[in-house]
Amino acid sequence: MTRLIFLNNQLCINNKIIKETYIYDDGDTRIFSGEFSVPDNEYFVLGDNRNISFDSRYWEYPYVKKEDIVGKSNFKFFSNPNILNVVFICISKNMLEC
User: Fold this and answer.
1) Using the 8-state DSSP alphabet, how is residue 95 labeled?
2) CA 61 to CA 55: how far, in whole Å?
3) What is the model's pLDDT at position 9?
4) Exposed, middle or buried, 64 (CB in 10 Å: 0-12/13-18/19+)?
5) Which of the two residues, 5 and 72, has the higher pLDDT score?
6) In angstroms, rounded to a whole number, what is the distance separating the alpha carbons of residues 68 and 55?
7) From CA 25, how far away is CA 51, in angstroms rounded?
8) How far apart are CA 36 and CA 63, in angstroms?
9) Residue 10 phi, psi (nearest 5)
10) Are 33 and 6 spatial neighbours (Cβ–Cβ below 8 Å)?
11) 49: which DSSP letter?
């Protein structure tokens, strides 16, 4: 099990502070704090545009089971991570749905 803690928007994984230099800072002052225990073989999904991302922090069941991840990244909208790095991931068994 992995322990995630958000304190004033700062992410800690298993008590280690994570430097998230790729996060887009739009000047929004919303603060998120919370704690999650991620079960083995499950994932906690976070958006890089954290202030407006509807990600695992807000889902009723915040984890994605490993067996439910069936696709890989199809493309990147921007390739320069200093500007913005957005990755489209299709999680579908039918690639025509992407």
Assistant:
1) G
2) 11
3) 81
4) middle
5) 5
6) 16
7) 8
8) 10
9) -90, 125
10) yes
11) S
Residues ≥6 apart with Cβ < 8 Å to 65? 41, 42
The single residue listed with the structure tokens 């992407």 is: 98
Indicate the length of the chain as a whole number.
98
pTM: 0.66
Output the six-digit token pair for 85.
């790095």
Which structure tokens are listed for 82?
């200093």
Q: In this structure, what token pair is assigned to residue 56? A: 């695992």
Residue for token pair 């999904």? 45
pLDDT 10s digits, 8-59 = 888 899 999 988 877 766 666 677 888 999 999 999 988 777 777 888 999 9
